């Protein structure tokens, strides 16, 4: 059979690597139904075309079975299209030489009862995805919460151990925040945190991590940022935050503690908790030095405080 003959089958056909779930082939029918270009599908992960619930089902149930048997028949999965529509499907999978061969048929035209079950499952999937998102987000500032930040930091550390680039851990604390709360009330304090969170979010890239670490303390992890870039960034951050005014037209200031990871101290990445601790110690030095400034963890003599 020629490759062109594969395009005659009225079903979605694609091939993924068994170890990584990378898509290495798909037919034109798949491209048409998913609604994404061929080069956007091939090379991506299976998770790019299936729902989160299907991904969990595959990793926890289907993959272990495919390790010990060469076939998996009539698996109920849900595909997602380019416009985020969900399509219930039935998949048959065969294993050969480290590859998974998928043959998928739509199941959206089955009887009414089946459709109701699919809709109920889709609703549960959406709720699960929403709950997953809510579990990662601080409800006041809409930034990542501490738990989500820790998870993302662990992923980043694993990546940096494979391919290093300079990274900086910043702890940011609002100066005199207790006085603001005591004087103007907690609602005023919350307004300040929301405004500050907006500045931090706008000042970071999608590759960075920005989170509410606790109380009036925030965490930023700058990826691919050397000492000078981090210093310049902190200076710009001070200037941006200085434009915020709260009750009685008082200017808001913050103190920042930084732990800079360079190639010569990248072994510290293996101790994630100590990275934050070093940044926290630098933060306290910034406060002890008069607040409204940045201090770097003192691992090199040439790293000065930034005012």
TrEMBL record:
**Sequence ranges assigned to domain GGDEF in this UniProt record:** 165-299
Keyword Coiled coil recorded: yes
Top-level class of the enzyme under EC nomenclature: transferase
The residue range of the signal peptide is: none
Reaction(s) the record says it catalyses: 2 GTP = 3',3'-c-di-GMP + 2 diphosphate
Alphabetical UniProt keywords: Coiled coil
Report the cofactors: Mg(2+)
**Entry EC no(s):** 2.7.7.65
Task: Tell me which Pfam families the record gives.
Answer: GGDEF (PF00990)
Q: Which residues form a coiled coil?
A: 107-134
Q: List the PANTHER family hit by this protein, alphabetically.
A: DIGUANYLATE CYCLASE DGCM-RELATED, REGULATORY COMPONENTS OF SENSORY TRANSDUCTION SYSTEM
**What protein name does the entry list?**
diguanylate cyclase
């Amino acid at each position: 059979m020629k490759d062109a003959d594969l395009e005659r089958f009225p079903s979605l056909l694609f091939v993924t690597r068994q170890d990584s779930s990378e898509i290495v082939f798909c037919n034109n029918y798949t491209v048409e139904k998913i609604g994404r270009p061929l080069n956007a599908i091939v090379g991506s992960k299976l998770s790019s075309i299936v729902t989160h619930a299907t991904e969990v089902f595959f990793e926890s149930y289907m993959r272990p079975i495919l390790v010990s048997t060469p076939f998996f028949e009539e698996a109920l999965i849900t595909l997602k299209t380019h416009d985020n529509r969900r399509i219930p499907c039935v998949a048959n999978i065969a294993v050969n030489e480290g590859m998974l061969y998928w043959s998928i048929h739509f199941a959206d035209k089955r009887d009414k009862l089946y459709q109701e079950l699919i809709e109920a499952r889709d609703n549960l999937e959406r709720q699960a995805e929403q709950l997953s998102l809510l579990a990662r987000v601080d409800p006041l500032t809409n930034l990542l919460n501490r738990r989500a930040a820790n998870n993302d930091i662990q992923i980043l550390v694993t990546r940096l151990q494979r391919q290093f680039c300079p990274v900086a851990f910043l702890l940011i604390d609002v100066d005199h925040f207790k006085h603001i709360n005591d004087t103007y009330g907690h609602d005023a304090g919350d307004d300040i945190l929301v405004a500050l969170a907006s500045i931090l979010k706008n000042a970071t890239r999608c590759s960075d991590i920005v989170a509410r670490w606790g109380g009036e303390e925030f965490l930023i992890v700058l990826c691919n940022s050397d000492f000078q870039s981090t210093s310049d960034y902190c200076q710009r951050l001070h200037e941006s935050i200085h434009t915020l005014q709260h009750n009685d037209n008082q200017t808001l200031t913050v103190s920042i503690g930084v732990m800079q990871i360079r190639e010569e101290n990248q072994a510290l990445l293996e101790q994630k908790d100590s990275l934050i601790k070093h940044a926290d110690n630098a933060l306290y030095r910034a406060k002890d030095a008069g607040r409204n400034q940045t201090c770097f963890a003192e691992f090199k003599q040439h790293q000065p405080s930034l005012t």
